[in-house]
Amino acid sequence: MAVSKRAQWQRYIDDALLKTEQVTMAAIHSIDGTRWATSKDFEVSPEQILKIVANITGDSNTLKKGGIKVGKQSYILVHHEPDRSVYGRRGADSGVCIVKTKKAVLVAVYGAGIQSSNCREVMERMADYLIDFGL
Question: N or C: which end of the chain has fewer CB within 10 A?
Fold first, then answer.
C-alpha cells in the first residue's frame, strides 16, 4: 500500500526532527506557503511562511524591526544567513530555527532544556538532506 506524500512528510517531522529531542515543534512548508506537515498544535500560516521566505532571500530589516512571527509567537532575530536561514530567540530558553531549501521551508521551535545550537544542527542537517535530493 502506497504512503501518501503528506504521510511521508509527516515522518520527517516525527522521526527526523522530533525524535532527536532537540526540536519541540516543527513544520515543513513549500516555499509558496503550502503546509506539507506539522507537529500537533503547531500552526504556521502561509502568510508567515511567505514573509519569512521574502526576508531570508532579501532584506532582513523587517525581521530586525518586527521580529520573526511563527504561529502565535514572536521571536527576536538573532541570526540571518542570506538565502538560507533565520534564527530567533524568545526569552531566556526558547527560540526558532528556520531553514530554506530550494523548494521547502523547515520551521522548528525549541524550548527549555534545548540548546539553540543543537536545534540549529538538526535543522541544517535536514535541510542539507533535502537539498541533496533536489528539494
Answer: N
pLDDT tens across 50-98, in order? 999 999 988 778 888 889 999 999 999 999 999 999 999 999 899 999 9
Which one, of 60, 61, 101, 109, lies nearest residue 82 by Cα? 60
C-alpha cell read off for 131: 537539498
Helical H segments across the chain, by residue range: 5-11, 46-57, 61-66, 116-132
| pTM listed for this prediction | 0.93
Measured between alpha carbons, how far is 135 from 131 in angstroms, rounded to an integer?
A: 5
